[in-house]
Amino acid sequence: MSTGPPPEELHFSQRPTVTEPIPGPRSSDLLDEQAAKEASTVAYPLSLPIAIDSARGATIEDVDGNVYLDFAAGIGVANVGHSNPYVLEAAQEQLGAVAHTIDFPTEARLEFIDALDSIAPGTLPGNSRVAFGGPTGTNAIEASIKLAKYNTGRNGIVGFDRGYHGGTMGALSLSGWSSYKSDYTPLLPDVAHVPYPRPNEYETSEAALEASLEEVRAVVSGRSEDFETPPAGLWVEPIQGSGGVVVPPDGFLQELAEITARHDVLLIVDEIQTGMGRTGEWFASDHADITPDAVTVGKAVGGAGLPLSATVYREELDTWGPSAHAGTFRGHVPAMKAGSRAIEYIAAHDLLDRATELGAYLQDRLRELKQQCPRLVDVRGRGLLVGAEFRDADGAPLPDLVESIQTRCLRRGLIVWTAGIEGHILRLLPPLVLTDEQAHVGMDILQDVVGTVTDETGR
């Protein structure tokens, strides 16, 4: 069976086409209508003021007919591209048969579980179980918290500073962003946060690594002021996405695996943004060659932007009983069908290698730009998760500059996103089906915009 059209045939075009002001007249009307009707929690249109009509591959068309290159992919959702026909065909066929099955078995469900098991990190393939509990990544985090507490009989949970795991109360408790949490306290008790190793804040990567691990050892062993006994679990992003596209030093995940195993603490790796091929491996933890106790997946796992998340964990941890983690939408079957097809598409078109190749190109172009722009102080990432950090001469973050870059890129037909608590990181995470020409055109636009903005601001 054919695995669909090749990546270069998925898109509206290879270049953006902007003929109307942004936002255009129809977009402006819809944005105003949304603001009048929907909750004030809506955020993304504040930075990207467009109303979307349709999308294909790595391109998006707004309701005014402007076509954009998408270097955000729904914040890491559209890994196989928007509206990939090979994926959509299967989802539509399943939707025509049955969509909602709670957790009754279907062929689509079991095929998807097998597909997830086949790509799971480390030694999990053939030794995993999958828990579905809700449509978004934060539901998977909640399941993993319950899994850790149930299996260890302990209450303590540990996250990393500037980490982000979701918006529900347990996931929010684990997250290390005070600005997201301060209005909703108190959250879960018995939560500790330890430093994530950020190499650019230390003289060497080794120093950053040891500073982080020293506190991890203390907390995980139960000899810190946070806990008198070991906690139930430790949650880590293999690369901090929202926290600033921070790639930890080599050896970090391996050390975490050893420390947690020594104290019978579960190691849960949050692969919601980094999974499904984004970093050039199926999961970012594959780069470290470890086997987590559990992995949380979401975002791109639904194949075509369909809502789905899961917690994949060691079979030995499957000690809980029926309805221990429940939910009306315990697996959206069309999303499962789409997820299986997306895995097939990624494998058939060598998109893991493609992510590595394209990511290296994006970083190379940014490093060229860094030579011309002193405010661009760091370029980092892995695969198609790339960050560029902007600071002034005194080291202060420059969120206004990054916001201006994002706005001007949009006017030129390029959608980019941001990261970091201060908002001073430019984040690029395009679909894995991005073409060479699209990558070249997009980086040409970005390079020109950064040069123009920095010239005008004197920064």
From TrEMBL:
Source species, domain of life: Archaea
Keyword list, A-Z: Aminotransferase, Pyridoxal phosphate, Transferase
InterPro entries hit by this protein: Aminotrans_3, Aminotrans_3_PPA_site, Dat, PyrdxlP-dep_Trfase, PyrdxlP-dep_Trfase_major, PyrdxlP-dep_Trfase_small
Keyword Transferase recorded: yes
GO MF annotation: an example: transaminase activity
PROSITE patterns membership: AA_TRANSFER_CLASS_3
Cofactor (UniProt): pyridoxal 5'-phosphate
Chain spans, region Disordered: 1-30
Family statement drawn from the similarity comment of this UniProt entry: Belongs to the class-III pyridoxal-phosphate-dependent aminotransferase family.
PANTHER family in the record: DIAMINOBUTYRATE--2-OXOGLUTARATE AMINOTRANSFERASE
Name assigned to this protein: Aspartate aminotransferase family protein
Lineage per the UniProt record: Archaea, Methanobacteriati, Methanobacteriota, Stenosarchaea group, Halobacteria
